[in-house]
Write a structure and sequence with these properties.
The complex is a heterodimer. By secondary structure, chain A is an alpha/beta fold. Chain A folds into two domains: 179 residues, Periplasmic binding protein-like II (D-Maltodextrin-Binding Protein, domain 2, 3-Layer(aba) Sandwich); 162 residues, D-Maltodextrin-Binding Protein, domain 2. Chain A is built from 15 helices and twelve strands. In chain A, the strands form two sheets. In chain A, strands 1, 2, 3, 4, 5, 6, 7, 8, 9 and 12 form a ten-stranded mixed beta sheet that branches. Chain A has a two-stranded antiparallel ribbon with strand order 10-11. The longest helix of chain A has 22 residues. Chain A is globular, with a radius of gyration of 22 Å. The termini of chain A are far apart. About 2% of the residues of chain A have low confidence. The longest helix of chain B has 43 residues. Chain B starts with 12 loop residues before the first helix and ends in a 9-residue tail after the last helix. In chain B, strands 1-2 form a two-stranded antiparallel sheet. The mean pLDDT of chain B is 86. Classes of the chains: A alpha/beta, B mainly alpha. At the A-B interface, helix 3, helix 4, strand 6 and helix 15 of A face helix 5, helix 6 and helix 19 of B.
Chain lengths: 373, 415
C-alpha cells in the first residue's frame, strides 16, 4: 500500500464514526430496569420507525454533569430524565429548552390536547411528563422471621422493636423526611405543611431513633437497583425504593419480596430537552414520540410505572394483560400501578416546589444529620 | 598572562565549552518541555482557577452591579430606601428579559435559603409593578419575605464581587451581617466533624499500612528471587485491578451475608444471629482502604530494604547484640527513608479518598472529599466545593512542609 492510500484510509477511519452517527439522540436516564423499560417501550420502536439511533446513558440524578457540560461548551446529552425539582432549578438556570406545550407535543389518542391529557400541570416550562412512580418500602419475606406478623404500615418501618433489623433508606433527604413524618403520625396529605413548621427537625429526630436503635440501624442506597439487591442479600430487612424496581425484582427475578403501600409518596418524573444539545432538532422529534400516548404506554409494558398521559391508560386498559416479560409472561399491570385505588389509600403527593425552594436548607440539615449519626 | 587555549578550529576553549553546554541545556529543556507544558496547563492553571472560584463572585456582581453600588451607602440597620429598591427593580427586570434571573435566584439561595422562590415569584409579578409607586411596598405585596430585612442584607452581601465567606463555612463558621463571626447552629455543623474524621482515617490507614507492609517488605527483600517475584506479584495485583472492582469485592466479602461472615458462621466462631458488622462502619473503611493503599507502602519500603546489606546485621550480632537490639539500632534506622516515603504517599492518597469509604463505610464513611464531591455534583455550590478543596490542598502542603522540616525531603526514597 502506498503512503497516500494509507493516509486516506486512516483519514476515512477517523471520519467514519462521526459520519455513521449523524442521526442520533443521546438520552440520559436512571439505568437498570427503568432505562430498560424506556428503551424497549419507546426507544427501540422510535429507532426502528425513524432510523435515528437512540443511545441510552445512565446517571444517578442531579444537574452537575449537564451543568459542567454547558459550562465547558461540550454538550453531549440531548434528553434527560429528571426529578421535578431539577426541571425547576435547571429551567431557572437556563439549561433546558422551554416548551410551547400544546404546539410542541401532540394531542392524545383520545383527541385531548396535550396540556389536558397530562395528569398534572408541568412544574416548569421546560418539563414534559413521563411517568408517575412511587416511593414505598418492601421487605424480604424469606430472610426474616416476623413471627407470623408482617409489616403493613409506615409506622412498622420505623418500629425496629417490633420488626428488628437494618433498614435501607435513600441517601438524600427526599422521601425520608416524608416517611418519617407519616410514621410520626402526621396525616399524609399535610406533610409539607408540617415541614414548614419545624417538620424537618421532627423528621430527623424520628430517623435518628430508627438509625441509632441497636435493633434497627440504617444503610443508604443511591441507585435504584440497590434496594432489591440489599433485600435479597439480607443486608437490609426493609428498604425504601421505587415501586417499579421492587416490582421488577418480584415479578422478573422471583425475589421473595413484598411491597407496602401505606404512606407511599406519589411522585412525577419528567423529560427535559438540553438547550444547545448536539442533536436538538432530532431530540425534539424523539421526545414527541416518547411522550405520545403510545410511547408512554409502551414503557408500562415493561415496568410498573404509570404513564403520565391519561390517554395512555386507555391504550393499556384496552389491551390488558399489558405487561409482558419472558420470566413472568403476561401480567395485568393496572393493579400494580402506584395510582391504583388499593395502593393510594394513604399517600403523600410529592411537592417539588418545596424541595426546589428549600433545597439548600434541607440538604444542609440532612447531610449534617447523616455525618453526625 | 595566561596562555589562551584554543580548540582545533581556532575558537577559545572556554567559549566553545560554554556553547556546547548551552546546547546541551537547550536539548534537555526541549525534552522536558512537553511535560512542563502539560503540568502547567493540566495542573497549575486549573489549581489557580480553582482557588479563584472559591472567592470569585464576579458573575453575580455583574448581574446586579448597580444595585450593589447603590447598596454600598446602605448600612443595613433599617429597610433600604427607594434608591435601592428601584435600582434592584430595574436590574431584575433586565434579568427577567434576558433570562438570567434563575441564576440570580440560585446564587442568592446559597447566601440565604428561600431566595429561589422569592426571586421566582417576584420575577413573575414584575410586569404588574407600577413604576411610579413605592417599590418596597410593591415588593412586599408580591412576597412578604421582602419585608424581612435579612433578605436585603443577604442581597447586599450576595452581590460582592468576591468574598471569603466560603472558607468560614468550610469550618462551620458564618459571618453575620454586622461582620461578627459565629459558629453555625449545632444541628447544622458537619465540616469540622468530617475534617477530624478524615485526618483520623488517613493517619489510621497509614499506620495500619505500615504495620502490615513492614514485615512483607522485609520478606520480599530477603527471599530468593523466584519466591520474592511471586510475592511481589501478589502485592502488585491490586495495582492492576480497577479501584471499583476491588471495592465491590470487599463489599462481597464483608457484608452480613458475605463470604467472611458465612465462613465464620459455618466454622462456629460466630452465631448466625450475631453476624459481625464489618461493613457500613469504620471497620469496613479501614479494611478496604488499607488493602487498597498497601502497595504504596510496600514498594518504597522494599526498595530501601533491598539495599541494606545483610552483613550489617551479622556484624551487629557478632559483636554481641541481641537480634532485637540489632534490629532496633541498625536495621530499623536504615529503613527510615522508606518508611517516611511510604507514609507520606499513603497519607496524601488517603486524605483525598472518597469512593471506597462512601461505598464500604456507609454514613460513617463520609469524609471531607465526599462533601467536596457533594457540593460539586448535588448542591452545585461550586465556590464552597473549591474552598474546601483549597483547604485540603493546603493541609497536604502543610503535611509536606512538616515532613520536610522533621525528616528532610532529601531523605525520601521512593525506589
Amino acid at each position: 500500500m502506498s503512503r497516500l492510500t494509507k493516509l486516506i484510509s486512516l483519514a476515512a477511519l477517523l471520519v467514519a464514526p462521526s459520519m455513521a452517527t449523524a442521526a442520533e439522540v443521546n438520552v440520559v436516564s436512571w439505568g437498570g430496569a427503568y432505562t430498560e423499560s424506556q428503551k424497549l417501550g419507546y426507544g427501540d420502536p422510535y429507532q426502528e420507525m425513524s432510523g435515528v439511533q437512540v443511545n441510552w446513558i445512565d446517571y444517578s440524578g442531579g444537574l452537575s454533569e449537564i451543568k459542567a457540560q454547558v459550562e465547558s461548551g461540550a454538550i453531549t446529552w440531548d434528553i434527560i430524565d429528571v426529578y421535578a425539582r431539577d426541571t425547576i432549578i435547571g429551567c431557572d438556570e437556563g439549561l433546558f429548552v422551554e416548551f410551547d406545550f400544546d404546539n410542541d407535543f401532540p394531542a392524545g389518542v383520545n383527541g385531548m390536547k396535550a396540556s389536558d391529557d397530562f395528569f398534572a400541570p408541568m412544574p416548569s416550562d421546560c418539563a414534559v411528563g413521563n411517568i408517575l412512580y412511587s416511593w414505598n418500602y418492601a421487605y424480604n419475606t424469606d430472610n426474616v422471621n416476623f413471627d407470623g406478623s408482617y409489616p403493613d404500615s409506615m409506622e412498622d418501618f420505623f418500629n425496629p422493636d417490633k420488626y428488628p433489623g437494618v433498614r435501607s433508606i435513600y441517601s438524600s433527604a427526599m422521601s425520608n423526611l416524608e416517611f418519617a413524618l407519616v410514621a410520626d403520625g402526621v396525616p399524609a396529605s399535610d406533610v409539607y405543611d408540617y415541614m414548614e413548621d419545624n417538620g424537618i427537625d421532627r423528621a430527623l429526630d424520628k430517623l435518628t431513633d430508627l438509625c441509632t436503635n441497636p435493633k434497627g440501624g440504617c444503610i443508604f442506597w443511591s441507585a435504584g437497583a440497590q434496594p432489591p439487591e440489599q433485600l435479597v442479600s439480607g443486608e437490609a430487612i426493609m428498604a425504601t425504593g421505587w415501586n417499579g424496581r421492587h416490582f421488577n425484582a418480584i415479578v422478573n427475578e422471583g425475589s421473595p419480596m413484598k411491597m407496602v403501600w401505606d404512606g407511599q409518596i406519589l411522585d412525577y418524573e419528567y423529560f427535559v430537552l438540553v438547550k444547545g444539545g448536539p442533536n436538538q432538532e432530532e431530540a425534539m422529534k424523539a421526545l414527541q414520540y416518547f411522550t405520545s400516548s403510545e410511547g408512554l404506554a409502551g414503557s408500562a409494558k415493561h415496568i410498573a410505572y404509570a404513564p403520565f398521559r391519561i390517554s395512555s391508560l386507555d391504550v393499556i386498559m384496552a389491551d390488558e394483560p399489558w405487561f409482558y416479560s419472558e420470566q413472568a409472561g403476561a401480567v395485568e399491570i393496572m393493579p400494580h400501578m402506584p395510582t391504583a385505588p388499593a395502593n393510594t389509600e394513604n399517600y403523600v403527593l410529592m411537592n417539588p416546589e418545596w424541595y426546589a425552594d428549600n433545597n439548600t436548607e434541607i440538604n444542609d440539615a440532612w447531610e449534617a444529620w447523616k455525618a453526625n449519626l | 598572562m595566561t596562555a589562551e587555549i584554543r580548540t582545533s578550529d581556532g575558537e577559545l576553549l572556554s567559549v566553545k565549552l560554554k556553547k556546547v553546554e548551552r546546547r546541551r541545556r537547550t536539548t534537555a529543556f526541549l525534552l522536558a518541555a512537553p511535560l512542563l507544558f502539560f503540568i502547567v496547563f493540566a495542573y497549575v492553571i486549573p489549581i489557580f482557577q480553582m482557588l479563584g472560584r472559591s472567592i470569585d463572585n464576579a458573575e453575580m456582581n455583574s448581574f446586579l452591579t448597580e444595585t450593589h453600588e447603590v447598596m454600598q451607602t446602605w448600612d443595613g440597620s433599617e429597610m433600604p430606601g427607594e434608591d435601592v429598591t428601584s435600582t434592584f427593580y430595574y436590574e431584575l427586570k433586565t434579568a427577567v428579559e434576558n433570562k438570567y434571573h434563575g441564576k440570580i435566584a440560585t446564587r442568592l439561595n446559597y447566601e440565604k435559603g428561600g431566595f429561589t422562590s422569592l426571586i421566582k415569584k417576584t420575577s413573575r409579578k414584575l410586569k404588574n409593578f407600577d413604576e411610579n409607586a413605592n417599590f418596597l411596598d410593591q415588593f412586599i405585596d408580591v412576597h412578604k419575605k421582602w419585608g424581612d430585612i435579612e433578605y436585603w442584607q443577604a442581597l447586599k452581601r450576595g452581590t460582592d464581587a468576591y468574598h471569603f465567606r466560603k472558607y468560614l463555612t468550610t469550618f462551620d463558621y458564618e459571618q453575620k451581617f454586622d461582620g461578627s463571626i459565629e459558629r453555625i447552629p449545632e444541628k447544622l455543623r458537619i465540616n469540622v466533624t468530617l475534617w477530624l474524621r478524615t485526618i483520623f482515617v488517613a493517619v489510621g490507614v497509614t499506620f495500619c499500612c505500615f504495620i502490615l507492609a513492614y514485615p512483607i517488605s522485609h520478606l520480599l527483600s530477603v527471599l530468593p528471587t523466584r519466591y520474592s517475584n511471586l510475592l511481589m506479584i501478589c502485592v502488585l495485583l491490586p495495582f492492576w485491578t480497577s479501584l471499583l472492582v476491588r471495592t465491590s469485592s470487599w463489599m462481597v466479602l464483608l457484608q452480613k451475608q458475605g463470604v467472611l461472615n458465612d465462613t465464620l458462621v459455618s466454622l462456629g466462631f460466630v452465631a448466625d444471629e450475631s453476624r459481625l458488622e464489618l461493613m457500613y462502619n469504620m471497620t469496613g473503611t479501614f479494611i478496604a482502604m488499607t488493602q487498597i493503599l498497601l502497595p504504596f507502602m510496600v514498594l518504597p519500603l522494599y526498595s530501601v530494604m533491598k539495599t541494606i546489606s545483610p552483613s550489617l546485621m551479622r556484624a551487629a550480632t557478632s559483636m554481641g547484640a541481641t537480634p532485637f537490639h540489632a534490629f532496633r539500632k541498625i536495621y530499623f534506622p536504615l529503613t527510615y527513608a522508606g518508611i517516611s516515603a511510604g507514609s507520606i504517599l499513603v497519607f496524601v492518597l488517603a486524605i483525598g479518598y472518597y469512593i471506597t469509604p462512601a461505598l464500604v463505610g456507609g454514613a460513617k464513611g463520609i469524609l471531607i472529599s465526599n462533601r467536596i464531591a457533594y457540593h460539586m455534583q448535588q448542591s452545585l455550590d461550586w465556590s464552597l466545593a473549591t474552598a474546601m478543596a483549597t483547604v485540603l490542598l493546603i493541609a497536604v502542603l502543610v503535611v509536606y512542609w512538616l515532613y520536610n522540616k522533621i525528616v528532610g525531603i532529601d531523605n525520601m526514597r521512593l525506589g
